[in-house]
Specification:
Length: 467
């Protein structure tokens, strides 16, 4: 297992692997707001300028400036997503939006567009086709989804997600499911706090709807998580964890019924926190022994609440009780517990670091492997890290025997066992230029990605403090 004290050199020296400087939070927020304003302005300006006029060309060029800065800083995509009645760029809400952004949000809703993803290499011609789609007469685009419109015109670096699903209640979007789900989950948390009761059946229906839309879409997990409102941490965290558990369970090939019950359990994994004083839940920093004991009680309190539910909830109760403990190998429901533990810690890291892109997802999974790895099933953690994008072709890092390497081909399941090329042998046993399939050497070295700067000062205790 690749915990912090195993496989990583004690000197802590990081090999000279090329990397871009990370943006500060303030810089990212400024660029995100700039993208929103310039995209919205260009969308409105297309009606004002002739498409070949100099004014229109300058408007498109202005959009490219903040986009280019984000890509230069390492963004693997730039997302604009509806967030309630507002807009989020890279998961960051645009606060006090100017009128152009408000109009742009209205236009996205009219087109039933929830997410626009701009990929590296996007150019002004691609943007022009996007704005053409958004500004077209409704009758001209009624029979075609945005993706089809773009592909027909040769645009490959702009993606549009409508995120619609067909269910018994008709057409719903991820936003609709999430907002409805917050109400359902909020009622159950309130009921647990005041009456000591919870309806697992209602939560199960939410789990079904959530997984229908998440697993039925092609949007990256990072983008789906960017759609969340952030005004109630406990509810947001529960939905995040449930989404991540569902994605992991589906990737393992579990059937729909198994996925739904695991997602239900994940939605209620923290319901015991309704029995913890608010002052303890909102405390940040080191806790006294009394406060820590109160926080730690939430696991057993959650299990008790769920076992007392009108519909007996054995798996949710097991997940609630053991999602912070290293479980016994013979524990019933072990897989659901392990998936929830991975998702719970990942969302905790995300909360502390505040990332909203693919690079951040990879950094969080790498942090978990290197500094908290002995807490998880190594196979499931590697699979999760692979889902997060760790070990992709072209990624650089080093082996725990010392060599600096580049990934030639990812392993389909194991993030830290790809096929690599040695760029610099250093004092390791492999030669420079050697190509090694790490999966074929189970007792050999593992791939160690570069840990982004934002995660280097984070400690496991910081995550534990979130409960």
């Amino acid at each position: 297992m690749a915990g912090e004290g195993k496989g990583i050199r004690s000197s802590g020296a990081v090999p000279p692997v090329a990397s871009r400087p990370a943006l500060t939070r303030a810089e990212l927020e400024s660029l995100a707001r700039d993208v929103a304003i310039r995209v919205a302005g260009a969308n409105h300006g297309r009606r004002l300028y002739g498409q070949r006029g100099q004014g229109w060309a300058r408007t498109l060029a202005a959009v490219m400036e903040p986009l280019g800065a984000l890509f230069e800083a390492g963004a693997q995509e730039v997302t604009l997503a509806l967030l309630g009645d507002g807009l989020a760029v890279q998961g960051l809400p645009v606060t006090q939006p100017p009128s152009a952004v408000v109009r742009f949000v209205g236009q996205l809703k009219a087109r039933d567009v929830e997410i626009i993803s701009l990929l590296p290499g996007v150019d002004t011609a691609d943007l022009e086709v996007l704005f053409e789609y958004l500004g077209a007469d409704a009758a001209d685009v009624a029979a075609m989804r945005g993706e089809g419109w773009l592909r027909e015109r040769g645009v490959e670096r702009v993606r549009i997600k409508h995120l619609k699903l067909v269910g018994s209640g008709g057409m719903e979007s991820f936003r609709d499911v999430y907002l409805r789900g917050r109400r359902v989950l909020g009622r159950q948390f309130q009921r647990a706090a005041t009456d000591g009761e919870v309806s697992v059946g209602a939560v199960g229906e939410l789990a079904r709807a959530l997984m229908d839309v998440v697993l039925g879409s092609e949007a990256p997990v990072a983008t789906l998580m960017a759609l969340r409102d952030r005004d109630d941490y406990q509810l947001v965290h529960s939905v995040n964890v449930a989404t991540l558990v569902g994605v992991q369970a589906e990737a393992l090939g579990l059937d729909e019924a198994e996925v739904q019950v695991m997602v239900t359990a994940a939605l209620t994994h923290d319901i015991g926190k309704t029995r913890v004083p608010e002052a303890v839940l909102t405390h940040r920093g080191p806790m006294g022994a009394k406060e820590q004991a109160l926080l730690d009680r939430h696991a057993v309190e959650g299990a008790r609440l769920l076992l007392d539910a009108s519909v007996k909830a054995s798996l949710p109760a097991v997940v609630a009780q053991f999602h912070h403990a290293v479980p016994d190998p013979g524990l019933p429901g072990l897989l659901a517990v392990e998936l929830c533990r991975v998702a719970d810690v990942f969302d905790g890291v995300r909360t502390l670091v505040g990332f909203h892109d693919a690079v951040g997802m990879q950094g969080a999974a790498t942090f978990m492997w290197r500094r908290m790895g002995d807490r998880f099933n190594p196979y499931l953690l590697q699979r999760f890290a692979r889902l997060a994008g760790v070990g992709a072709a072209g990624a650089q890092g080093w082996l725990d025997t010392g060599e600096v390497v580049r990934v030639l081909a990812p392993h389909p399941e194991l993030a830290f066992s790809p096929k690599v090329e040695v760029l610099d042998a250093r004092d390791g046993p492999l030669r420079t230029g050697a190509q090694v399939d790490l999966a074929a050497r189970p007792d050999g070295p593992t791939f160690q990605p570069v840990l982004p700067a934002a995660f280097r000062n984070l400690a496991p205790a910081d995550v534990d403090g979130l409960g």
